[in-house]
Amino acid sequence: MPVRIGIPRTLAYYAYFPWWKAFFEGLGLEVIASNPTSKGILDAGVKEAVNDACIPIKLFHGHIMDLKDKVDYIFVPRLVSVRRFGTETFCPKFLGLPDLIRASTTNLPQLIDIRVDLAQGRLELFNICQSLGRKFGVGFWTVTQAFWKAQRVFRRYEKLLSSQLTPVEAIERLDGGDVGELEVDNAQLSFAVLGYPYAVYDRFINVDLIKKLRSLGVRVVTAEMIPPQHLLKEAKRLPKNLFWHFSNRVMHATSYFLNREKVDGIIHITAFGCGPDAMVDRMMELAAKKKGRVPFLSVTIDEQTGEGGIQTRLEAFVDMLKRRRGLE
Amino acid sequence: MKITFPHMGYSYLSFKMLLQDLGHEPIVPPQPSKRTLDLGVKHSPEFSCIPFKFLMGTYLETIELGAEMALTYGGVGPCRAGYYGILHQEIIADLGYDFKILVFEPPLSGIFDFIQKLKQVKPRHMSWRVFWGIAKKGWSKLQVTDDLERMEHEVRPYEIHKGDTTKAFKQALANLDQADSNAAIQEARKDGLKVIEEVAQDRSRKPLRIGIIGEIYVVLEPAVNYDIQVTLGEMGVYANRSIWLTDWTRDNTLSDGEKDVQKAAHPYLNELIGGHGINSVGETVLYARHGYDGVIQLAPFSCIPEIVAKGILPQVSRDLGIPVLTIFIDEQTGKAGIQTRLEAFVDLLIQKKEHQLLKANLA
User: Is the entire prediction scored with pTM above 0.90?
Assistant: First the structure.
């Protein structure tokens, strides 16, 4: 039986899962992602995590609990940086994540908390992969092959994303699944839905907001659908870049949708208790206000987020914009 | 120019003098109050931390007093504080005020930027040598403030008449406020320390010793933490604070430097997580090693690094047998609530100590 490695289906999952999956499978491991977020996972997380933590961290604990008895290892890399870009790093909770998990939960399978600090140099990711390979007793060439395979898979993933699939759909497509055609032709409005990948694409925690919008006749674009280099070009427009990778992406995407690819409205999905978002949300609001009053809606998600509440707010927002555009 | 700065403990004495020496008109921010917080809360994002809201309120209050510019400090850590200045500026501009916030980043992250900003506060005709002298004097006043405060907290648990130490400390500060030359500052230090030391004391007491850790602003600003050190002192507890504005390494009871603190934290947290997150973990370890009876973690509600620290501290507490009380401060926090929790915590510590003594006697 192959060694099983678990990857929690939250936080960095939506950004990097295809890469790690291809890589670990190249090493001959079996990759198991935790189940999609559910009430059970949320409750387990709320129980395990430190009570002041934000929803995403609680969810992460829940996903760890979900994986715990199914795998031999859990992959919880300590993400420090993924590109060389000023002082950019991740939210302190990401930086201390393995330590938090260890302090709060017991009886865990071994955590693989390798430090990912790609600002160190060009070869850093390759080196990390080699040391992971050594850990599992896999030779240099097999690791190298797995590394290149992961790179290839990831390029395909990025291509799928830029054809306006969400990461969830793109991951399904990579696995050979069929997500069906997207009905985008008859859309009257287009919205940018921005926020951290684990808030925007987690269908449970945001009560499937993207699908709701699409069924209201809205074309949805997200930060992941823009090629990264286009996003990076927006950096110059900001007074000072933020410290956090995902926040920078959100700010850059805001600027992109305000300046380059005009949209009818911006929806920011933010998690209750999110530290960086306290700043980001206001920055986005001010930016949208400055740039010709682009309508801006901020949706906070938490343990109690209800289907009805979100639906009503979205409908109101869409109706308002349709009226404004004279579509009704 | 009329310049202001954030209110942080008693540091305003030095900043006031510094700005005066540079030929500006200092606007000393009023002590943070309910009104400061209300103003701040009104104009800040809901989930920003308490320091952000207090600073927001402070800026708005000083604008009312006529301030045109504020000096503050940025940072490169992944903590939100590094972004304060920019967001404050945007919100204030959005409110329609003409007010500039000059954010000093650590000189090592961009020396030209740093000098550029210094030039904005330095009068053109002043030489850099004179400027350096003035800055050095400001720094020494800051050090003296810290010395006086340290002495104050050392003496308070022994005071016989409640409130004497506070009176003596206030007197020493007023004295220091008058001092405006290097010699006078040193003179004020000597006199101040003497005044505080001369408070009637009962040295036979054996006070509990509690370490205070956490986020710098709520630890340093008595108006925000409801005078926690004084409250503890008046309960007869010696409260040692881990954070001082001037180089807390001088306080060698705790450590020989920040490196030590980080090393102590390594078994539990091996990454710089910004703010004072790693320090909080490391200092708890060090307090335990130095035989302190307990540790109190003070942090603003929703402070990211401190939440991580709080998640890890129970393990430190279990391993090293040091009780830890975490107090998150937000706009709903009240003095009575804090007082009650402190009393309960101190009672527990006393019982624990008696229990240990009893066990030792029996053995």
Answer: no
